[in-house]
Design a protein that fits this description.
It is built from 20 helices and 2 strands. It has about 500 residues and is mostly helical. Strands 1-2 form a two-stranded antiparallel sheet.
């Protein structure tokens, strides 16, 4: 950008929108209340304004009408069916729907809007700026002692592990997902940089950021970044039939070294420590049950589910075991369903680690609600209020499960088809020019897509959290642009 040139907001609003994302999360941290956050309302406003803006400014409105029409059509089916069965909380359900529909609405809009190199560069520059902004926020929040821990609560009785910067407690997992995506992008920025300092600094910063955050998502992403880019360096040279330069060899060894160190230090990571604490408690509870039954002449470890159900002594001991474990994690599950039905849902397992998993409890609760629903509700989803208790929410902590249960077979199918469309685009790109597509940038987008798809299975903080799903929308827009409008140049990646 040349000095003295005037820039119009209408031309560069996309860059500003992206840069605003981490700042909105900071705003949410300092202004959070029971009614919500100012940042949340701003994001909702953006989701409303952007489609209207494109409907006014775009010449070809057909793709926008089709994309938004599908979303609106399904929303009407979902809401209409719930009016049929009887709504508990219409506004609460619509609020949740707005969060989950944020990704498809924003991605459709961005895919339509990003059709030239200037707009693509705005996203790339915005993401690069966000890497710097979030890194600064993490450092400042840690040095000032104002950060939110990844696990536990400062001043609480349990362990306090990991750093999650200035994010509200309910956004800790979303922050981790954002960190994961930006780590993939930051590693790309480092590897493709012509400056040696940046080239080696970026992967190191990714290592520190992910390891200190400490979630499973962050650690898996750290390993994926180090191993994934290392494999790509080798594979791309094989495909291009090129000999690796010294810089590529050094980067390969550097990434593999970081991968090895990540494996070695994992036992000291926040995730490993919290898992060890949970497993120790679970093993103690499980052994207590097994020893008690063993003293009564029962070898419960070798009993089948049918044998456990048939013996009244074992059945009642297990029922008491389930009640105690579930009561400490999701008591609402006990309020909703008979303990014996819950035990059936666990296939009469005595694995305490599985039973104390709160995420599993919430999935069992949702599955049992779904089983009791009629066909129309199974197709379009049940009401969010059924899991959103005033005192204790049983909201699912796994995104793909959330979409399936809250929006049924049709909603889940539509979401999956939408993601398959982008996989089709990737395969189409590779088929058209496989060797030419072997660029670090393309690999960054492809790996980012599949990592986020995977993390949505383990986390409930991507597809239904607008502050993290906006990043997925940006990624989808970049993928769409690469296939439909961009042309790769052989040798684009000078380092490789």
């Amino acid at each position: 950008m040349s000095i003295g040139k005037k820039y119009k907001f209408s031309e560069y609003w996309l860059f500003l929108l992206i840069v605003a994302q981490p700042l909105l999360d900071v705003l949410a941290f300092w202004t959070s209340s029971e009614a919500g956050t100012a940042a949340g309302y701003i994001r909702l406003l953006v989701m409303i304004i952007l489609p209207i803006y494109l409907l006014i400014t775009e010449d070809n409105k057909k793709p926008l009408f089709i994309g938004l029409g599908i979303v609106a059509g399904f929303a009407l089916l979902h809401v209409g069916n719930l009016f049929r069965v009887g709504y508990i909380n219409f506004f609460g359900d619509v609020k949740n729907m707005a969060k989950i529909f944020y990704l498809p609405v924003m991605s459709v809009c961005l895919c339509i809007y990003v059709r030239d190199e200037n707009k693509r560069k705005q996203i790339v520059s915005g993401l690069a700026a966000n890497v710097a902004i979030i890194a600064a926020i993490i450092v400042i929040s840690y040095l000032t002692g104002t950060y939110t821990p990844t696990y536990g609560k400062i001043g609480g009785t349990g362990p306090v592990l990991g750093t999650s910067a200035w994010v509200i407690v309910s956004n800790r997992n979303a922050h981790s997902i954002i960190l994961c995506f930006l780590s993939i992008f930051a590693t790309y920025l480092g590897i493709s940089s012509k400056k040696a300092a940046v080239r080696y600094l970026m992967p190191a910063l990714v290592f520190i950021g992910c390891a200190t955050n400490g979630t499973t998502s962050a650690y898996l992403t750290l390993l994926a970044c180090m191993a994934g880019y290392a494999i790509f360096i080798v594979f791309s040279h094989i495909v291009r039939k090129e000999r690796m330069k010294k810089a590529a060899v050094l980067m390969l060894l550097y990434l593999l070294s970081l991968f090895a160190v990540a494996i070695i230090v994992y036992p000291e990571s926040p995730q490993a420590k919290i898992t060890a604490i949970e497993k120790a408690a679970a093993d103690k509870r499980q052994k207590s049950l097994e020893d008690e039954l063993m003293a009564m002449g029962y070898d419960i470890k070798n009993m089948s589910p049918e044998e456990k159900k048939a013996d009244p002594v074992v059945l009642e001991k297990m029922a008491d075991f389930y009640r105690k474990n579930i009561l400490g994690g999701a008591p609402g599950l006990l309020d909703n369903f008979d303990i014996y039905r819950i035990m059936d849902a666990y296939d009469m397992s005595t694995d305490a680690m599985e039973i104390i998993d709160v995420r599993k409890m919430k999935r069992v609760n949702a599955h049992l609600i779904w089983e009791d629903s009629d066909l129309a509700t199974k197709l379009t989803g049940f009401e969010f209020e059924k899991v959103d208790w005033p005192e204790e929410t049983l909201d699912l902590e796994n995104d793909w499960h959330s979409i399936f249960y809250y929006y049924g077979v049709l909603g889940f199918g539509a979401y999956v088809l939408y993601m398959l469309y982008f996989i089709y685009l990737v395969l189409k790109k590779l088929r058209q020019n496989f060797a030419g597509s072997m660029t670090v940038y393309n690999f960054c987008l492809i790996m980012g897509f599949f990592v986020l798809i995977g993390l949505a299975h383990f986390s409930g903080a991507l597809l239904k959290r607008p502050n993290s799903s906006i990043y997925f929308a940006m990624l989808l827009a970049l993928l769409h642009y690469q296939v439909c409008y961009a042309s790769d140049k052989p040798g684009e990646d000078k380092l490789l």
